[in-house]
């Protein structure tokens, strides 16, 4: 029976403008005219027209059908030069358009942007902004009334473009390394005390580019590490700074191989202290409190405000010689356009989103901490086959599971810090459903409604994190047998308290993975399971119809674990027959080779030993069914295996094929003995 390996998280590309709009029409019927009209205006002599065109393209880039039109019309080559436009406003909106395009366009669009040499003007812009930050306060372009710092805001947009592209393109990361972008973005990060938004964007980018990038790690000298340390230990305690500290901690974890060995323990303790503090906060209560604070603030604000446009137009912006002065009449109106490009500006909502994001990232980093560095972890995470030795049928379940369930390699420093900061306990608390009051508040407010999905994502990440923690810590560190039994009851309640849980694929995959791991541990330690066979069958019958292969693999594995335990007990004949029929149905009818292989593995385990299992196998005619299926499985493996499976997967499936032959021979012996 297989053991699922820990899943590594890679930072997903972040859409800074929220959800991209889904396509409503077929691409073939799209009209390119909006894109054409806006792209033509990019060459207009008026800076205001160019800025408006960039803002329009930024909105257009959020619509999936329009992305293809923008790509066909070579928008990247036309927007790229505007990153160095004489007008600061044009620079910012051009960067905003590219930011949206890279965030919503995905891997292909980002790779195409690199092919079309967007990195050249982007790096040049980042360097100019860096030089601008070294200038006097006058040349920082700060308008007190608008609270607008153009250099930093342009840098923020540019860093987000850089981040999105580097997430998707190894060529972009190579250019990042070669052009010395690290020094530039670290300078931006050093301004965290005065511009946390820019610092957060840099921290997201750094977490992305430092992952699996040994060439860049060589560039982290003592001053660079000092910048990270200063940000990570900032005394400011707002939710935005909580997010910043979490992101920087993730970057430091990526740098662990270059840190002095004598400071490894202290560093890991510092990281997990940050994650512990982040997870300590109850997001449901925070949502309730922050929404109430927003309501009070809005009620206290005057119903109407007089716009002092004339007074604001009387102020001028001091521009560098090479940058065009922004027309006075744009100062008030331009915020309408920029607001479309930036994350939510409502103070309370922004802070709440920052906390939710910090908790999600903390959970993902903890998962990665619990993963081994074996490259195969990125392969078939959900699948591995039984022992292929000739004597595997004679091994007891305890011997087999003892081999499979040995904790993954985990450094003593991480192990100690996980337990010292009560990380398992805090993860257990996060696997519950979001606070119903908070969900109700968000559902009644359109701007807060997206937070429901974020809260659900945190629950799913916590379940994945639970799987990882269960895999690397021993039973005593997890609270002993009673704690595991309580956890099993809690997981079963989570599953069955949501009637339509089958529709929530991410949740179902996460909870079935955690449950699979928990049941493996409990079975290997002879801890009685709290879920009844009927409950497990109900879960498996629902989960096997999921379109997600991982879910189907998990449910057949769960049945295999349960069947192994029941096979050693008396009076379980009928339940074993039910399990056997279910597994045979899945093995012979599921379209996925992965699922079929895991199901055969489960059959081998359930019916490998035990008097009740032997009787059940004969009564459900297991031998004849497997004999009939054997040539079908071989043919399917031969025809579909190489086209649909990786090399590692094929090795596992070949192992299953060999074990199927041996198991049939074993069952022939059993049947002769029982029927003679």
Automatic annotation (TrEMBL):
Q: Where is the composition biased (Acidic residues)?
A: 304-318
PANTHER family per the UniProt record, alphabetical? HEAT REPEAT-CONTAINING PROTEIN 3 (PTHR13347:SF1)
Q: Where is this region: Disordered?
A: 1-27, 296-318
Parts of the chain that traverse the membrane: none
Give the top-rank taxon of the lineage listed in the UniProt record for this protein. Eukaryota
Bias type Basic residues, positions: 1-11
Q: What is this protein called?
A: HEAT repeat containing 3
Q: Which family does it belong to?
A: Belongs to the nuclear import and ribosome assembly adapter family.
Q: Which GO terms describe its molecular function?
A: unfolded protein binding
Q: Name one GO biological process term.
A: erythrocyte maturation
Organism this protein belongs to: Vombatus ursinus
Q: Where is the SYO1-like TPR repeats domain?
A: 412-669
């Amino acid at each position: 029976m297989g053991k699922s390996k820990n899943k590594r998280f890679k930072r997903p590309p972040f859409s800074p403008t929220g959800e991209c709009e889904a396509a409503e029409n077929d691409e073939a019927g799209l009209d390119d005219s909006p894109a054409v009209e806006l792209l033509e205006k990019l060459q207009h002599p008026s800076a205001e027209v160019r800025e408006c065109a960039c803002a329009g393209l930024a909105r257009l880039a959020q619509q999936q059908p329009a992305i293809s039109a923008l790509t066909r019309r070579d928008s990247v080559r036309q927007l790229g030069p505007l990153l160095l436009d004489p007008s600061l406003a044009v620079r910012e909106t051009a960067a905003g358009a590219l930011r949206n395009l890279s965030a919503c366009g995905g891997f292909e669009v980002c790779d195409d942007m690199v092919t079309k040499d967007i990195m050249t003007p982007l790096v040049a812009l980042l360097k100019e902004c860096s030089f601008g930050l070294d200038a006097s306060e006058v040349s920082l372009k700060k308008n007190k009334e608008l609270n607008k710092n153009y250099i930093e805001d342009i840098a923020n947009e540019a860093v987000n473009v850089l981040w999105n592209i580097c997430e998707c393109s190894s060529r972009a990361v190579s250019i990042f390394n070669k052009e010395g972008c690290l020094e530039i973005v670290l300078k931006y990060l050093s301004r965290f005390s005065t511009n946390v938004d820019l610092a957060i964007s840099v921290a997201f980018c750094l977490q992305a580019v430092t992952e699996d990038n040994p060439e860049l790690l060589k560039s982290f000298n003592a001053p660079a590490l000092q910048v990270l340390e200063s940000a990570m230990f900032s005394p400011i305690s707002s939710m935005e700074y909580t997010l910043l500290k979490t992101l920087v901690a993730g970057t430091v974890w990526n740098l662990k191989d270059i840190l002095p060995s004598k400071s490894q323990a202290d560093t890991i303790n510092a990281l997990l202290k940050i994650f512990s503090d982040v997870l300590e906060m109850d997001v449901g209560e925070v949502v309730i409190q922050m929404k109430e604070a927003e309501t009070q603030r809005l009620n206290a604000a005057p119903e109407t405000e007089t716009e002092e446009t004339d007074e604001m137009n009387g102020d001028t912006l001091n521009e560098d010689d090479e940058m065009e002065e922004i027309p006075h009449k744009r100062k008030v109106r331009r915020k309408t356009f920029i607001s479309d490009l930036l994350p939510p500006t409502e103070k309370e909502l922004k802070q709440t989103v920052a906390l939710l994001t910090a908790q999600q990232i903390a959970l993902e980093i903890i998962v990665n901490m619990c993963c081994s560095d074996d490259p195969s972890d990125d392969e078939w995470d959900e699948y591995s086959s039984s022992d292929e030795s000739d004597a595997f049928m004679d091994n007891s379940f305890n011997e087999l599971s003892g081999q499979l369930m040995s904790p993954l390699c985990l450094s003593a420093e991480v192990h100690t810090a996980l337990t010292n900061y009560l990380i398992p306990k805090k993860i257990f608390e996060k696997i519950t459903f979001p606070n119903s009051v908070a969900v109700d508040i968000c559902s009644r407010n359109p701007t807060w409604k997206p937070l429901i999905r974020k809260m659900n994502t945190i629950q799913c990440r916590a379940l994945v994190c639970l799987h990882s923690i269960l895999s690397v810590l021993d039973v005593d560190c997890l609270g002993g047998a009673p704690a595991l039994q309580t956890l099993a009851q809690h997981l079963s309640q989570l599953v069955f308290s949501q009637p339509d849980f089958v529709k929530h694929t991410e949740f179902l995959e996460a909870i079935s993975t955690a449950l699979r791991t928990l049941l493996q541990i409990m079975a290997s330690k002879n801890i009685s399971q709290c879920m009844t066979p009927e409950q497990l069958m109900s879960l498996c019958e629902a989960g096997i119809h999921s379109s997600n292969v991982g879910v189907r693999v998990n449910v057949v594995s769960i049945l295999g674990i349960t069947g192994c335990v029941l096979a050693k007990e008396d009076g379980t004949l009928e339940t074993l027959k039910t399990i056997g029929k279910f597994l045979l149905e899945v093995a012979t009818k599921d379209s996925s080779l992965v699922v079929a292989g895991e199901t055969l593995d489960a059959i081998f385990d359930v019916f490998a030993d035990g008097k009740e299992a032997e009787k059940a196998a004969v009564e459900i005619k297991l031998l004849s069914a497997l004999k009939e299926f054997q040539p079908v499985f071989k043919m399917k493996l031969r025809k579909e295996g190489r086209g649909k499976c990786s090399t590692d997967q094929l090795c596992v499936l070949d192992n299953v094929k060999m074990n199927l032959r041996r198991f049939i021979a074993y069952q022939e012996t059993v049947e002769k003995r029982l029927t003679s």
